[in-house]
């Protein structure tokens, strides 16, 4: 089984160097280190430039969208010119916690969508309890040609189908392994496997059998195994399809 993790935060893990050293032995093809604010986006690029098997995305998370200036968006655009940067993200809307106003989130989301469209990169969408508004903003403001992924999808099949109809991939994380997560199982069952991307969101959302402990990209294998089980496809075939999906979604050769 060859592994790929299309969404992780190694910079938030103290023992990241030890984890990265295991990539070759664990058949990790590559991971995508995802930015969440300006400083962290600088760090994602630095990490990607240091390690061959790490790519980066740069972006400002909706929870960090307060008090942003044009300089901040210009910085994201400059960082995105690095050859190891393959996406803008994670960007979007998050209504779960009121860290920022909806107005600030809309401004940040729209500005970064414009960056993605201008420089021709896909987007990594963070959407939490805001799927309808995020969908409408995408439709109203124009979708990047390279599309992207709805990261850590957590809604129902009806919602997933709307984003699939736009052309977006669906990101599946550790919660797919949680007991009684019937809604997400239905999403995976109905979504064409060619439109699914495996993620960990590490150090968060650790899958079974390590739930409750700190997550890392190597645990993506449990997500892949669960997808294979739901799809009734062999683990090896599933891992190859998902790897090819990741390469296609983010134009990685």
UniProtKB/TrEMBL annotation:
Record's GO cellular component terms: cytosol
Keyword entries, A-Z: Hydrolase, Metal-binding
Record InterPro entries: DNase_TatD-rel_CS, Metal_Hydrolase, TatD-like, TatD/YcfH-like
Gene3D superfamilies registered for this protein in UniProt: Metal-dependent hydrolases
Binding site for a divalent metal cation 1: 7, 9, 90, 201
One Gene Ontology term of the molecular function aspect: hydrolase activity, acting on ester bonds
KW Transmembrane (keyword) present: no
Coiled coil residues, start to end: none
UniProt entry tagged with the keyword Metal-binding: yes
Binding site residues for a divalent metal cation 2: 126, 151
Protein name (database record): Hydrolase, TatD family
Species of the source: Marinitoga piezophila (strain DSM 14283 / JCM 11233 / KA3)
């Amino acid at each position: 089984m060859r592994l790929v993790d299309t969404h992780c935060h190694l910079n938030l893990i103290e023992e990241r160097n030890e984890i990265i050293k295991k990539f070759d032995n664990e058949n990790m093809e590559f991971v995508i280190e995802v930015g969440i604010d300006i400083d962290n986006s600088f760090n994602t690029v630095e990490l990607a430039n240091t390690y061959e098997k790490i790519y980066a995305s740069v972006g400002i998370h909706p929870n960090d969208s307060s008090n942003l200036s044009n300089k901040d968006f210009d910085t994201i655009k400059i960082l995105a010119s690095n050859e190891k940067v393959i996406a803008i993200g994670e960007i979007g809307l998050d209504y779960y916690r009121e860290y920022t106003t909806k107005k600030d989130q809309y401004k940040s989301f729209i500005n970064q969508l414009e960056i993605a469209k201008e420089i021709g990169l896909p987007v990594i969408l963070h959407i939490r309890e805001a799927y309808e508004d995020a969908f409408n903003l995408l439709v109203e403001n124009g979708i990047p040609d390279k599309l992207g992924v709805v990261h850590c999808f957590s809604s129902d099949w009806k919602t997933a189908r709307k984003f699939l109809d736009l052309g977006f991939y669906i990101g599946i994380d550790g919660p797919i392994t949680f007991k009684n997560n019937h809604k997400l199982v239905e999403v995976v069952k109905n979504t064409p496997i060619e439109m699914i991307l495996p993620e960990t969101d590490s150090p968060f959302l650790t899958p079974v059998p390590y739930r409750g402990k700190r997550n890392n990209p190597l645990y993506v294998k449990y997500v892949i195994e669960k997808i294979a089980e739901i799809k009734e496809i062999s683990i090896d075939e599933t891992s190859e399809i998902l790897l090819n999906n990741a390469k296609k979604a983010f134009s990685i050769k």
